[in-house]
Amino acid sequence: MKKYILFAVITVMSVLADQLSKLWVVQNLRYRIDEIDVIPGMLSFVHAQNRGAAFGIMQGKMFIFAIFTLLALGVLGQMLWQLEEDDYFQNIALAMIASGAVGNAIDRGRQQYVTDFIRVYTENPDISAFFINNFGTNEWPSFNIADTTIVIGLLMFLFHFLFLEKNPNAEPAT
User: Fold this and answer.
1) Distance from CA of residue 37 to its chain's centroid?
2) Of 2, 29, 138, 173, which cross-links 128 as Cys (Cβ 3.0–4.6 Å)?
3) Which of 18, 34, 116, 126 is catalytic?
4) Domain-wise residue ranges, the chain
5) What whole-number distance in Å separates Cα of residue 131 and Cα of residue 124?
6) Is 147 an annotated catalytic residue?
7) Under the phi-then-psi rule, with left for phi > 0, alpha for psi from -120 to 50, and beta for the rest, what region is 55?
8) What DSSP element (H or E) covers 139?
9) Are 59 and 52 in contact (CB under 8 A)?
10) With bands split at pLDDT 50, 70 and 90, how would you rate the model's confidence at 53?
11) Does an H or E element contain 128, and which?
């Protein structure tokens, strides 16, 4: 039971942080006009809307996003059910991924787009030139807290499987 409580608390807190931050952005920053420098020349808050998925792909495919989100939440629920009671690391990773999926699903269901606001870019001439020459831009697509929790959760899983998971076929150290 403890693992489900931990999962629920982290998921709810992360969804609240996501939704409250988006609400603040919508109420305080005019869409595609206002910008607040957090770290000048590197990080700012803006008001953007994404009608697609990561990097704006699949614009307007809300039905596909809904199906994918439900499937993902089902898989995450199954993984949580199979998880050892005291595997806090993976529990937190699952909760982070689930909260991101739910946070963005709330936006898509309520307004047919996701509110993004974290802008990462560079104005350093040398670095900016490198990125523009190699990637066509010196700016990462805007994102939000839900996107961040999904990435953190996935990185936690990757870390777990690369460094923490015990290989059942490994010979014991002598």
Assistant:
1) 22
2) 138
3) 116
4) 2-163
5) 10
6) yes
7) left
8) strand 139-143
9) yes
10) confident
11) helix 125-135
Give the pLDDT confidence score for residue 52 in this predicted structure: 83
Amino acid present at 137: T
Catalytic one of 34, 37, 87, 147: 147
d(CA 76, CA 11): 12
86-100 pLDDT per residue, tens: 999 999 999 999 999
Q: State both tokens at 92.
A: 């937190």
The answer to whether 116 is a known catalytic residue is: yes
**Burial state string for 38-51 with b = 16 or more CB within 10 A and e = fewer than 16:** eeeeeebbbbbbbe
For residue 104, give the amino acid letter: N
CB-neighbour burial class of residue 140 (10 A; exposed 0-12, middle 13-18, buried 19+): middle
Q: Going edge to edge, which strands form the sheet with 35-39? A: 35-39, 43-50, 114-121, 139-143
Task: Report residue 132 as tokens.
Answer: 């523009």
Tokens at 172, concatenated: 């014991």
Q: Is the pLDDT of residue 21 over 70?
A: yes
